Amino acid sequence: MSKVINNSKINITQELTLLRSAVIGLIGKDPEGEYRPEFVKKVLKSMQKKPTMVFDKATFRKLIEKR
Predict the structure, then answer these.
(1) 33 pairs with which residues across the strands?
(2) Taking a C-beta distance cutoff of 8 angstroms, is the pair 47, 20 a contact?
(3) Contact of 40 with 28, CB cutoff 8 Å
(4) CB 44 within 8 A of CB 25
(5) Contact criterion met (CB below 8 Å) for 39 and 19
(6) Angle subtended by helix axes 2-27 and 37-47, to nearest 10
(7) CA nearest 20: which of 51, 44, 56, 3?
(8) DSSP 3-state assignment of 60?
(9) What is the pLDDT along the chain (67 residues), one digit of tens a residue?
(10) Three-class SS of residue 49?
(11) How far apart are CA 10 and CA 16, in angstroms?
(12) pTM for the full model?
């Protein structure tokens, strides 16, 4: 039973990786052209990290307005 669950987890992880790649491939293009490959790599890398902040709408808006 444990082996079946492990195999399922591995398959799900692989499928999720493929889906992420597909999504990045789709959003990698916009009306102005394609995103730079360095930017896409940076986004993919940061998606794998844990979030460093948790905030609500108001806090997020204030952070954006500061910049």
Answers:
(1) 30
(2) yes
(3) yes
(4) no
(5) no
(6) 150
(7) 44
(8) helix
(9) 678 878 888 888 889 888 888 777 766 666 666 777 788 888 888 888 887 878 888 888 888 888 7
(10) coil
(11) 10
(12) 0.38
What single-letter DSSP state applies at residue 34?
E
Per-residue tokens: 1: 């039973």
Q: Give the chain's length.
A: 67
Q: If you ran DSSP here, which 8-state letter would residue 35 be given?
A: P
Residue with tokens 């990698």: 28
CB 44 within 8 A of CB 23: no
CA angle 17, 43, 39 (to 5 degrees): 125
Helix residue ranges per DSSP H, the chain: 2-27, 37-47, 57-66
